Amino acid sequence: MPVEGPLRFVVLVGSLRGGSFNAAIARALPELAPSDAAIVPLGSIGAFPLYNQDVEKQGLPPAVVAMGEAIAAADGAIIVTPEYNYSVPGVLKNAIDWLSRLPNPPFAGKPVAIQSASPGAFGGVRAQHHLRQILVSQDARTLAKPEVMIAQAQAKFDEKTGALTDPRTREVIARQLQAFAAFAAR
C-alpha cells in the first residue's frame, strides 16, 4: 500500500566511536533529505548487550524493544556503517541479531537504505555486501541503487566541526535519499 503524506525515516549507526565518520553522515542526513521526508536518529546500539539466548529468556532488553518499535513505526530505515575487517562491525550484527528476536521483527518488509564511509579506497563496499546478505534473512526491502560508499572519508569532513563538507558527497547522499523516498512510498 503506497505511503501518503510525509515520510519518516530512522537512521541506525553501525559505529560506537565518538568521532565516527558514519555518525557524522547520519547527523547530516536530515538537511539532505527531500522536503517530504524527515530523518530521525535511533538510540545507540551500544546499549544492547551481547546477544545471548540465556539473556533473552530473561526478557528482551528495553533498548532492543524501544529500537524495534521505532523501526517498525517508521516508513523506512537508513543504516550508516563503517567496514571492519571486510565486513560489518560486530556491534551492528549484534543489534540486528537482537532485533530479529522480537515477536514482530522490525526489518520484515521494511524499506532499508545503506550508506558507508571509510578512510580507505573502497568506502565500505564489503560491509555493504555483507549487510545486504544479512538483511535478506530479515526480509527487508533493500534499496539497490543509487549506492553511497564514501571513500577517503577523512577528506570529506571539516576537521574541527566534523560536518560533512564535500559538495559531491552531499549531492550523492541527497540523490540516494530522493530515490529512497520514492522507493519507500511504493
Description:
The protein has 186 residues and is α/β, with parallel strands linked by helices. The protein is 38% helix and 16% strand. Strands 1, 2, 3, 4, 5 and 6 form a 6-stranded parallel sheet that branches. The model has no long low-confidence stretch (mean pLDDT 96).
Question: Short description, anyone?
Answer:
The chain is α/β, with parallel strands linked by helices and 186 residues long. The protein has helices spanning 21-32, 53-57, 62-73, 90-99, 125-137, 167-185; strands at residues 7-13, 37-41, 76-81, 111-117, 141-142, 148-150.
Radius of gyration (Å): 16 Å
DSSP strand tally: 6
N-to-C span: 7 Å
Spell out the helices and strands N to C. EHEHHEHEHEEH
- Unreliable stretches (pLDDT < 50, length at least 5) are none
Helix content: 25-40%
From the spread of the alpha carbons, the general shape counts as: globular
Give the count of helical stretches.
6
Average pLDDT number: 96
Looking at how many chains there are and whether they match, the oligomeric state comes to single chain
Helix/strand/pairing class, anyone? alpha/beta
Biggest pleated sheet: 6 strands, parallel
- Beta-strand residue fraction: 15-25%
List the helices and strands and how they pair.
Elements: E1 7-13, H1 21-32, E2 37-41, H2 53-57, H3 62-73, E3 76-81, H4 90-99, E4 111-117, H5 125-137, E5 141-142, E6 148-150, H6 167-185
Parallel strand pairs: 1-2, 1-3, 3-4, 4-5, 4-6
